[in-house]
Amino acid sequence: MSNKILIIADHLDGSLNESTARAVACAQQMSPTGIDVLVLAEDGASVAAEAAQIEGVSRVLQADNAANAHPMAALLTPQIVAAAQQGEYSHVLGPNTTFGKDLMPRVAAKLGVAMVTDIMSVHSAHEFDRPIYAGNAVITVAAPTDQVLVASVRCASYPAAPGGNSAEIETLSLDAELPGHTRFVNLEQASSDRPDLQTAPKVISGGRGVGSEENFKVIYDLADKIGAAVGASRAAVDAGYVPNDMQVGQTGKIISPELYMCFGISGAIQHLAGIKDAQTIVAINKDEEAPIFEVADIGLVGDLFKIIPELEEKIG
After folding, report:
1. Do the annotations mark residue 208 as ligand-binding?
2. Is 251 known as a binding-site position?
3. pLDDT tens, residue by residue, 39-98
4. CATH number of the CATH domain containing 281
């Protein structure tokens, strides 16, 4: 079976998520005979145009359907399965983002195969490394070569494939029966002018040590001064300081910024699993025994409410 790879585009509001280019970077290491990107949308012209620019992409398949106006995994899955079978793909990949975590297991189930989650390194087209035990160990898995491989890509492990390409865009007609048991009601999400947490080069996070929702303002203010995204530990989310879409860690967002600064975060294993790919980790905590200091490149023992104003003064 040739290594013909289909990647599912992750997009929102007419813009392609960088996670798609990161999945392409992973696919390029699988010795592919071709890499196609499938864009499922109501009108995917702008998204398809972005996908066509990603280096390494052979074709972009644009499948427009009014049912895709509000993408839901239950409705996208039958279309992806139809596309995978129609194109006789050996691999179907998606990013291990919130979008991909919801979608790809359904695709695997509908194709009747097991899936490989969270690919962080490629040995061959069917052999990969993936993290286990909250990122404390890495396991090598070998997938069967006689069936379609469905997998999700750990985006933090791959740089985005560069632009500059001009891949062909084809309109794809899919014969797929869509289920009627799932319908879109409405979307509630936090709006912010700050960078996207999963792709931002700088991230500042707060933990339980911040103390309250009101106190989190000091985290936001510092982040805005340096143009950083804002994250939080699960403890801060569970305490109601911030919404859960800001959670960084094994059960939240896995990130790989150039700079990660965390205030009042002790460093539970689950949180460390989400930041281990950060290039520079700066930790500020009152407890000098906090586990976060074991992984931090720079650690400072002290009161965050005294240190943050001093940092802001230095920044100017």
Report:
1. yes
2. yes
3. 999 999 999 999 999 999 999 999 999 999 988 999 999 999 999 999 999 999 999 988
4. 3.40.50.1220
Pair 121, 210 in one domain: no
pLDDT of 203-235, one tens digit each? 999 999 999 999 999 999 999 999 999 999 999
Instruction: Check whether 106 is labelled as a binding-site residue.
Output: no
Q: How far is CA 261 from CA 148, 169, 213, in A?
A: 41, 41, 19
CATH number of the domain bearing residue 119? 3.40.50.620
User: Amino acid identity, residue 130?
Assistant: R
70 known member of a binding site: no
Domain residues for 271?
Answer: 202-315
Helix (H) or strand (E) holding 270: helix 269-275
Q: 254 CB contacts (<8 Å, ≥6 apart)?
A: 96, 154, 155, 156, 198, 273, 274, 277
What is the distance, to the nearest Å, from the Cα of residue 30 to the centroid of all Cα atoms in its chain? 20
Q: Is 135 annotated as a binding residue?
A: no
Instruction: Say if residue 233 carries a ligand binding annotation.
Output: yes
Same domain, residue pair 24 and 161: yes
Asked whether residue 215 is marked as a ligand-binding residue, the answer is no
Tell me: is residue 28 an annotated ligand-binding position. Answer: no
Q: Does the annotation flag 269 for ligand binding? A: yes
All residue ranges of the chain with pLDDT < 50 are: none
Tell whether 160 and 214 lie within a shared domain: no
Residues 281, 297: contact at Cβ < 8 Å?
yes
Show the tokens assigned to 228: 């950083």
